[in-house]
Amino acid sequence: MQKQFPVQYQAEKEVSQEYGALSQIEAAEAVLGFLYKKILSQYVEKTTCLDVTLTTGKYNCVTASLLYLALSRSLGIDCRGQECTIHAFCTVYIDGQK
Predict the structure, then answer these.
(1) What is the pTM of this model?
(2) Any alpha helices (H) in the chain, and if so which ranges?
(3) Residues of the chain whose pLDDT is less than 50?
């Protein structure tokens, strides 16, 4: 069973209520703004645990990408995690296109 933090539950609920009626491209952009406004506060490269990000706001590319992925998918957006040697990020597909 997946552990869910209160802030994660609240974020999914708020995102669904606020952005659920938007087009997918508008919702994808709004989710990113939401993360930086409400959750992500300080980039710390060594922050690799999602629970730390959810409780402190400290993040790196991996934890920010995981949150974006989860929130985007909760809205039905086709979002996929990407990893390269020194970075992680998400790619959003709308109507089959990046």
Answers:
(1) 0.82
(2) 6-19, 24-34, 50-56, 61-74
(3) 1
